């Protein structure tokens, strides 16, 4: 479970800080930085799970020239020379809920292209067990005292048992020794769930001929296999949620074609009977896929969904969020579940829907965050750049600066102006 993100010099972020709740909905207009935030998590995920060479250059949004913060100054192009991303998290472990931090820093190569192609970008990275010296984030996130105590106890138990509190990720031998293996394994398991779900209706409609053991793919292409694998109890709960969101649905029927070795499924509608995926609307398929990902124990961890409203009727979006949020692991749950699960369930979603914000105006947990563009002047070059700023959506508290928060009505007005 991600608890905090700090980004500097990456895309639209300079000295950016965000406390992340178990259910966090990032709201903002197009170009506000919502996708960039998920890209930052994706960059860390790829670097941890696949290594730095594959995380730089193979994916256009993560190609080196697109990563560093850019601005235009009087002397021409300017960009950050160093970018860093730090992510705080709580992960399940044999010792309880363990507070961990992963940090990456990449230095921009300023050499001519001819001389820099043979060597990779300078990278520094490490993962460590949080020292718990700074506890302000716990208060801001509203963590109960029981969890704070459990985090400290898990930290002490882990350090005593493994003797490891820090591992370098950029060394050739990182993680090869016994001391760092468990810490790295916990990090890999957590980061593997950070890939945003970007559901593709065309992929959702196709039968799937691969293995049924994998969790839902990013594009949802193996939805049929996931529906075939989940237990009957989970599927019954999924059917109830689907009926609440799309009232004319009455059931889900997983299918397997033994001759072709392909998984498929049908959805039952009250007035038209069993309907195959090619005949289902994109909105119905997206809702079903999100429910399948949420109910699938093999995808325990973060469920990150970009532009949650895509393909959905605005009236159905708030109820979808409420039902997904009901399955989130709250802070009070983490201590008891830490030794029994592979990941804590967390929802991170982006949206630019004013209808969703209006429906969630009474949300008081702090999980609604408004992202917006702001201008920043570099003190050295005087270059002006556009940066992403995050403000919680709530009423201003006594002692807070006037611009520290944004009210629901202000945020709705800004979102509505772009619709």
Give an account of the 3D structure.
The protein is α+β, with helices and mostly antiparallel strands and 419 residues long. The protein folds into 2 domains: 2-193 and 330-416, no CATH class; 201-299, no CATH class. The chain is 33% helix and 25% strand. It has 15 helices and 16 strands. The chain has helices at residues 34-50, 52-55, 64-67, 113-116, 136-141, 145-162, 178-191, 201-205, 223-229, 232-245, 282-295, 317-325, 331-337, 354-359, 408-416; strands at residues 2-8, 16-19, 23-27, 70-73, 76-79, 82-91, 98-107, 123-129, 166-168, 249-257, 262-269, 273-275, 302-305, 346-351, 368-377, 384-392. The strands form 4 sheets. Strands 2-1-6-7-8-9 form a 6-stranded antiparallel beta sheet. The chain has a 5-stranded mixed beta sheet with strand order 13-14-3-15-16, covered by helices on one side. α6 runs parallel beside α13 and α10 runs antiparallel to α11 (282-295). It is globular. The two termini are 32 Å apart. The mean pLDDT is 87.
């Amino acid at each position: 479970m991600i608890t905090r993100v700090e980004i500097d010099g990456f895309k639209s972020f300079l000295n950016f800080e965000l406390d992340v709740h178990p259910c966090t909905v990032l709201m903002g207009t197009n170009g506000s930085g919502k996708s960039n935030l998920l890209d930052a998590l994706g960059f860390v995920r790829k670097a941890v799970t696949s290594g730095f060479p594959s995380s730089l250059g193979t994916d256009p949004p993560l190609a080196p020239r697109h990563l560093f913060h850019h601005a235009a100054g009087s002397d021409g192009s300017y960009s950050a020379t160093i970018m860093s991303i730090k992510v705080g998290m709580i992960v399940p472990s044999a010792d309880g809920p363990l507070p961990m931090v992963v940090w990456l820093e990449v230095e921009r190569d300023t050499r001519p292209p001819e001389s820099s192609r043979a060597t990779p970008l300078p990278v520094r990275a490490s993962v460590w067990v949080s020292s718990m010296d700074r506890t302000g984030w716990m208060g801001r996130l509203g963590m109960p005292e029981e969890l704070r105590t459990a985090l400290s106890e898990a930290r002490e138990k882990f350090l005593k048992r493994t003797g490891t509190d820090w591992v370098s990720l950029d060394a050739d031998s990182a993680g090869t020794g016994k001391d760092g293996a468990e810490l790295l394994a916990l990090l890999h398991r957590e980061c593997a769930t950070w890939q945003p779900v970007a559901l593709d209706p065309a992929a959702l409609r196709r039968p799937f001929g691969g293995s049924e053991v994998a969790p839902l793919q990013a594009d949802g292409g193996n939805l049929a296999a996931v529906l075939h694998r989940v237990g009957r109890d989970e599927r019954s709960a999924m059917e109830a949620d689907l009926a609440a969101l799309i009232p004319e649905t009455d059931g889900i029927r997983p299918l397997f074609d033994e001759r072709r070795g392909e998984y498929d499924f049908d959805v039952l509608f009250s007035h038209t009977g069993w309907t195959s995926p090619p005949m289902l609307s994109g909105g119905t398929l997206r809702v079903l896929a999100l429910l399948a990902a949420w109910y699938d124990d093999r995808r325990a961890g973060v469920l990150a969904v970009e532009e949650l409203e895509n393909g959905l009727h605005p009236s159905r979006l708030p109820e979808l969020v409420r039902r997904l949020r009901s399955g989130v692991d709250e802070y009070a749950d983490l201590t008891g579940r830490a030794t029994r699960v592979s990941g804590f369930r967390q929802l991170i979603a982006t949206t630019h829907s004013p209808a969703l914000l209006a429906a969630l105006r009474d949300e008081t947990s702090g999980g609604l965050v408004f992202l917006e563009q702001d201008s920043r002047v570099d003190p050295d070059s005087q270059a002006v750049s556009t940066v992403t700023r995050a403000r919680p959506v709530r009423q201003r508290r006594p002692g807070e600066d006037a611009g520290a928060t944004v009210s629901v009505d202000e945020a709705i007005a800004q979102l509505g102006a772009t619709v």
